[in-house]
Amino acid sequence: MNVKIKSFVLIPIDIAVIVICFFVAAFIRAFDLLAEIKTIAQAPSDVYRVILSPAFISIIVIYVVVFIIFNLYSTLLKHITLEDAFRIVAANLVAAMASALYNFFLAEFLIPDGIGLTRIPTGIVLIAAMLITLATIVIRSIPRAAESLRSSYLNKHSKKTVSRVLVYGAGEAGVALLRDLQRNPNQGYRIVGFYDDNESKAGSSIHGLRIYGPHNGVDKTVDTLHVDTIIIAAPSATAEQFANMLENCKSTGCKVRRLPSLYDMVIDGDLKLTSVRDVDINDILGREETQLDVDSISGYIKDSVVLVTGAGGSIGSELCRQIIKYHPKKLILFDIYENNVYDLENELFRLYGKYIPLKTYIGSVRDYKRMTDIFDLEQPEVVFHAAAHKHVPLMEFSPGEAVKNNIFGTYNSARVAHEHKVNSFVLISTDKAVNPTNIMGATKRVAEIVIQAFSKISETRFVAVRFGNVLGSNGSVVPLFKKQIAEMGPVTVTHPDITRFFMTIPEAARLVVQAGAMANGGEIFILDMGNPVKIADLARDMIRLSGYIPDVDIKIEYTGLRPGEKLYEELLRAEEGVENSSHNGIFIAKPFYMDWEDVQHMLSDFDACINQDHNAVAECIKKYVPTYHNEVGSPK
Asked: Which residues have a catalytic role annotated?
């Protein structure tokens, strides 16, 4: 029902209510038992005084005008809230005061003596005001009450499967979820109770639903209420607090879902069941994302021409999303794969408008001539080099391609940046470059050596940023586990003891941009990845939080280490050492430099072996990366 239709219906109803309430008030005043002088014969007299008063029509107009001013005809009747009720009371209070004042001044100054007209008795005006207030609230509450009864009936008699939900969190967010379910009963949920870690809330109720507390325990509450889904409604909880909530839910056998954090929530000021999402890997890890020094980032990004290689990849695309927020003079997307970068370009135009300073080029970092042409044309001042082959097992079987892309692609990009006097060049590296056991990690270590050598001969500030796995990136285990769980398994883990560092893609990209602001030249920045996570434990947690029992409902299978894979990753070589930076999420490795002449010899050796087999490339790598060893899973 739109506002015009509601006004058309409600205004006549309100007028009728006002008239009736004044008549009722006249009778109430006549039969006031506390006033002995009143008799039943006086009741018609008071009613006539109301009808014949010149103030009566004016008071009706006053009420309607005040109701319009207070927007009482724009409220969605099915969604009326406590705030709306307060607004109705306030409107009635203002209308009553205005009516009483008008009635008084009319009698004192406007009605001529001796014409038989008088003002409405003040007692009738006040009694009528209370009746009108009550009646307007009741009338506007009827649709919501009817909707609640309808929702309750549909939930109880629905033929489709309804999930019994325990809301973890008895705050405003939990109440908002319940209210949304009452408004929209066909969403497949039925909230049967609340749980809250605050003991003082336990035993009380919300709209008739009991709040359970720590003395009950989540497990016992789930059993008591026969719950199959838990929704965690705690958008303001810290990552640590949320991780504790998840820990309490793991053994329940329920599917666990959550509301987004306050930072992620954009729901027009209201919380809805449609905003509930599955628990993701970052929730399980309980990792607090680090904050940025916005001023330092803005200082080198704003009004600069920024180029991102590998812009269509998981890290490259997120870098572009972060960079555009700092208002570069121009953002240049460069990638060999047109589909991903095309999607990214459309996404940025959609989010920020078609006139943002954005340009996309297709090409390969292996092509020195192509890169030179683009640098000549665009004159970038900051370069983020994210283009690389990253899949460890695939590179074991195509080592020459890893050398072409990761080593010579980096060399070409750095060389062009040096020749064009770019201000800053940031290489995206990996924890797999530390004591590498695979071709991919070893070639990224060589790439680090290359850019550190450039930093000794160039005006450009060349730096590398090293971090571990990013959640949800191409090749990550997390999307694979989700798919396997959806298919009811098995969930495949390579080894029961394998561990990895994890970080979200947005956080990694933000810290890469932050590291670029801190660059002096030659540094290898290491992002604080927190504690390593055992992949088998991660798989079990994801299975439990999907409502299944590991190794019962969904099996976990160990498939053996893949070519080039090692049990654990490191972020620092023993000989490097580390020191703190000005940012608590970033550390700096002690620089290790190779002479420029030695770098040229190294590149010549790699060029000679580039089209040979795995063993030839591995021998070349061992010559320049002594910590490289590939005993585990090398291709046969």
From this structure: 432
The amino acid present at 325, given as its one-letter code, is: K
Q: Which of 342, 360, 344 has its CA nearest to residue 352?
A: 344
* CA–CA distance, 173 with 235 (Å, rounded to integer): 7
Query: How many contiguous H segments (helices) and E segments (strands) does the chain have?
Result: 22, 22
Q: How many C-beta atoms lie closer than 10 Å to residue 15's C-beta?
A: 14
Count of domains forming the chain: 3
490 prior amide bond cis, ω within 30: yes
Distances (CA, A) of 15 to 12, 196, 289: 5, 46, 57
Q: Which domain holds residue 406?
A: 294-490+502-531+571-624
pLDDT digits (tens, 9 = 90+) for 79-109: 566 677 788 888 889 988 988 888 777 655 5
- Write a three-state SS string for 470-527: EECCCCCHHHHHHHHHHCCCCEEECCCCCEECEEEHHHHHHHHHHHHHHCCCCCEEEE
Domain membership flag for residue 632: no
DSSP 78: G
CA pair distance 626, 602, nearest whole angstrom:
13
112-158 pLDDT, tens per residue? 544 445 667 778 888 888 998 898 888 877 776 666 666 566 555 55
Report d(CA 346, CA 351) in Å as an integer: 9
Name the domain boundary from 115, 132, 154: 154
Triad 586, 589, 590: Cα angle to 5°: 145
Phi, psi angle pair for 254, to nearest 5°: -95, 155
Which ranges constitute the DSSP H helices of 106-169? 122-157
Give me 158's structure tokens.
């629905």
The single residue listed with the structure tokens 């450039």 is 454
